[in-house]
């Protein structure tokens, strides 16, 4: 079954015309699609920068690639390579996986002074899952502490065996900074591509993959795609996910218009009715009515699947409630309690959702957020990070809305309604929007590096937590003797102590520690030096003291600690794994 046979619809008339399998005689050689993978800051973007002879690395914020880019590079030998520049940041693991699914060869970049890191291992796993061969680029070999042999040995543990060690993985020592040996890396990649005998049918119906998608103010939905079969031309009718397009304009990675795009070529496509998702398969259909029919059918299918999922979730919730109800019934056995509990359940079940703003006024331990991003892949990466949030007992995190494009008035109104915070990634908020947000008390937080956005979110979550009390010791004393004094008709236990550290201040708080365990906390009723009442006893001095609880037994060897309590801001325990 070829790709077009997967566009099934409910009737034979609604099926996509299934073109025949490509005739081997029609297959022609194509250039390789190569994915650059590796750990963050190991030099992937700088490596591509040298190949492209542009300054992409300098334009990247913080030197970190924020989303997938596709570039066609012409080498001095006349050969061509399409590079997918996948992000090295941990947050974009899903995008790296998507890149590996459309690539022919993976160039694994490992810094010679750093060695194998977490995202290096993830990249290897993505390449293996996609069954894609690897070329090893050991970068930063110009540094004095570079150790390429160490890198090769470390990779043995992950079944990446270089030719030096009897394997089939080519290893090239390079320096992206100085440009040393980059042509050797390109030649190694081309040589591997020749062995793979990469071919495609440029005459069949178009097939491809959406690498990235975003909305442009002037041009509408835009996608970057890799063509895998056929020749894409202006006017072609395409289907991707639950969107379709009549190609209005095509352009290359430099923004120059294209008339045709062949297999292995990266191409920007304008003309989409809606925005497809990164990773969606692109298929050509014969007409606009056919495209609408396929998209409508896919939407119906999705709705039906969602209905099934919702029913499944409802059934699971019903079972959970039933189990909880049975446990409570067995525990309490009270008819009154059972009736009250069941009525509360029905009340919750029938209750209409209240505005989160009203809820937040009752429970400040809730943080509603709105996410806006520049491209589909960036938003997906942020949402994947939000999925790791595992501290709802501290503060409930509510994702009330997400989307693409600059911050709009609707976003501000939405945030005002939900008493939420707007987080923007690589997007803008105009002056009028910011003024409107300020008037409505809505926070807008804009970031260009994803982990800065998450750090900001962690701070916002922490600000919603109640302050915690921290104890700061002021002085410590050891009980050397115990005795009692008569005050009126009662005997008061007294501890004879020597201050060993700091000082004891009568007005502060105290605790009594025995064998490492705190057995009392409170305040002193008296603090004396010899027979004189004092407010402070300093280190090295002897004193007598009595506690505000006369029932507490005092023993020789017990430790008396003088301390004060200060409120400090709490910090969320959520760790997204940076």
Your description of this structure?
- This is Translation initiation factor IF-2, mitochondrial.
- β9 and β10 (220-229) form a beta hairpin.
- The longest helix is centred in the middle third of the chain and has 45 residues, at 288-332.
- This protein folds into five domains: 3-12 and 202-293, Elongation Factor Tu (Ef-tu), domain 3 (Beta Barrel), CATH 2.40.30; 31-197, Rossmann fold (3-Layer(aba) Sandwich), CATH 3.40.50.300; 301-349, no CATH class; 356-463, 3-Layer(aba) Sandwich (Rossmann fold); 468-568, Elongation Factor Tu (Ef-tu), domain 3.
- Residues 9-19, 54-59 and 331-362 have low confidence and may be disordered.
- It is an alpha+beta fold.
- The protein contains 13 helices and 30 strands.
Explain briefly what this protein structure is.
The protein is of the alpha+beta class and 578 residues long. The chain is 29% helix and 33% strand.
SSE blueprint:
Blueprint: E1 28-29, E2 33-38, H1 44-52, H2 56-59, E3 69-74, E4 80-85, H3 93-101, E5 105-111, H4 118-129, E6 134-139, H5 148-156, E7 170-173, H6 182-196, E8 199-200, E9 207-216, E10 220-229, E11 232-233, E12 237-240, E13 243-251, E14 257-258, E15 260-261, E16 266-272, E17 281-285, H7 288-332, H8 335-350, H9 356-362, E18 366-373, H10 376-386, E19 396-404, H11 409-418, E20 421-425, H12 431-439, E21 443-447, H13 450-463, E22 468-487, E23 490-505, E24 509-514, E25 517-522, E26 524-529, E27 532-533, E28 536-538, E29 542-547, E30 559-568
Secondary-structure arrangement, i.e. CATH architecture of the largest domain: 3-Layer(aba) Sandwich
- The amount of beta strand, in percent, is 25-35%
> Which CATH first-tier class of the largest domain would you pick?
Alpha Beta
End-to-end gap:
42 Å
Inertia-based shape:
elongated
How many helices? The count is 13
Average pLDDT works out at 82
How many whole angstroms does the radius of gyration measure?
A: 34 Å
Stretches where pLDDT is under 50 for at least 5 consecutive residues are: 9-19, 54-59, 331-362
Helix percent band: 25-40%
Task: Work out the number of β strands.
Answer: 30
Could you say which structural class the secondary elements and strand pairing correspond to? alpha+beta
* CATH topology annotation of the largest domain: Rossmann fold
Pfam family, one: EF-G_D2
Coiled coil: 304-331
Main location: mitochondrion
Subcellular location: Mitochondrion
């Amino acid at each position: 079954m070829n790709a077009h046979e997967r566009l099934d619809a409910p009737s034979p008339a609604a099926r996509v015309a299934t073109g025949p399998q490509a005739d081997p005689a029609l297959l022609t050689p194509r250039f390789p699609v190569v994915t650059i993978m590796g750990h963050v800051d190991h030099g992937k973007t700088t490596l591509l920068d040298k190949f492209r002879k542009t300054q992409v690395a300098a334009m990247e914020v913080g030197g970190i690639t924020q989303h997938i880019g596709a570039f066609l590079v012409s080498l001095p030998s006349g050969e061509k390579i399409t590079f997918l520049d996948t992000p090295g940041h941990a947050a974009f693991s899903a995008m790296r996986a998507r890149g590996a699914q459309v690539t022919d060869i993976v160039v694994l970049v490992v810094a010679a002074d750093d060695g194998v890191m977490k995202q290096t291992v993830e990249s290897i796993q993505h390449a293996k899952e996609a069954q894609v061969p690897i070329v090893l680029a050991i970068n930063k070999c110009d540094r004095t502490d570079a150790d390429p042999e160490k890198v090769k040995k470390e990779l043995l543990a992950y079944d990446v065996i270089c030719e030096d060690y009897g394997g089939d993985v080519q290893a090239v020592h390079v320096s992206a900074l100085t440009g040393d040996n980059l042509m050797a890396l390109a030649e190694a990649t081309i040589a591997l591509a020749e062995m793979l005998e990469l071919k495609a049918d440029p005459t069949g119906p178009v097939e491809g993959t959406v690498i990235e998608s975003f909305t442009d103010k002037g041009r509408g939905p835009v996608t970057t795609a890799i063509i895998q079969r056929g020749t894409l031309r202006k006017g072609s009718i395409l289907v991707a996910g639950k969107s379709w397009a009549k190609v209005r304009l095509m352009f290359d990675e430099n923004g120059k218009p294209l008339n045709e795009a062949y297999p292995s070529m990266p191409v920007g496509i304008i003309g989409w009715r809606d925005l497809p998702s990164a990773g969606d398969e692109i298929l050509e259909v014969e007409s606009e009515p056919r495209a609408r029919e396929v998209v409508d059918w896919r939407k119906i299918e999705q709705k039906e699947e969602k209905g099934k999922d919702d029913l499944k979730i409802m059934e699971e919730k019903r079972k959970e409630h039933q189990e909880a109800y049975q446990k409570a019934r067995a525990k309490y056995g009270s008819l009154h309690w059972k009736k009250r509990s069941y009525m509360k359940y029905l009340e919750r079940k029938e209750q209409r959702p209240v505005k989160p703003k009203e809820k937040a006024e009752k429970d400040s331990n809730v943080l509603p957020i709105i996410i806006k991003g520049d491209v589909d892949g960036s938003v997906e990466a942020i949402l994947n990070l939000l999925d790791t949030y595992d501290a709802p007992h501290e503060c409930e995190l509510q994702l009330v809305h997400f989307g693409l494009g600059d911050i709009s008035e609707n976003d501000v109104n939405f945030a005002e309604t939900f008493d939420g915070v707007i987080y923007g990634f690589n997007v803008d908020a105009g002056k009028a929007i910011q003024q409107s947000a300020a008037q409505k008390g809505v926070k807008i937080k804009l970031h260009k590096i994803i982990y800065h956005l998450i750090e900001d979110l962690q701070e916002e979550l922490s600000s919603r937590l109640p302050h915690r009390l921290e104890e700061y010791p002021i002085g410590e004393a050891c009980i050397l003797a115990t005795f009692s004094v008569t005050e009126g008709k009662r005997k008061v236990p007294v501890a004879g102590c020597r201050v060993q550290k700091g000082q004891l201040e009568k007005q502060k708080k105290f605790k009594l520690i025995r064998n490492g365990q705190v057995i009392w906390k409170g305040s002193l009723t008296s603090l004396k030096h010899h027979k004189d009442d004092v407010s402070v006893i300093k280190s090295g001095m002897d004193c007598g003291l009595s506690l505000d609880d006369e029932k507490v037994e005092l023993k020789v060897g017990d430790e008396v600690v003088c301390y004060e309590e200060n409120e400090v801001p709490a910090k969320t325990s959520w760790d997204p794994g940076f």
